[in-house]
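Hello, quick one for you while I still have it in my head. I'm working through a protein record and want to make sense of it properly. Would you mind checking whether the tokens look sensible for this chain? I owe you a coffee for this, so here goes:
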Amino acid sequence: MASVAVVRGSSWADRFRQYDIECDGVRMGRLKRNSRLSFQVSPGNHELVARIDWCSSNAVTFSVAPGDNVEFDVASSLRGWRVAGAVFALSRPQSWLTLRLLGGAE
């Protein structure tokens, strides 16, 4: 098995809401502000997505080998000037959240 962790910081946007974390289409758990979600996956290729209501993040495909530890960061895309442009973001629901690989396998 391999270990996957998703961390969420303290951004202002969505601060009272939780993000659903899905791996290969299966909900692995929910992330509150300033929290971390860890789970195990089998070796091989996987796809990770974060969701909030009808919006989501980019899908990240990654591969792991037995014993690998990978970490992802998820955050709202609404930072700085984008907070004022939330209506624009609603027209692109797959860009509401940003999910990125921090370390581990590719």
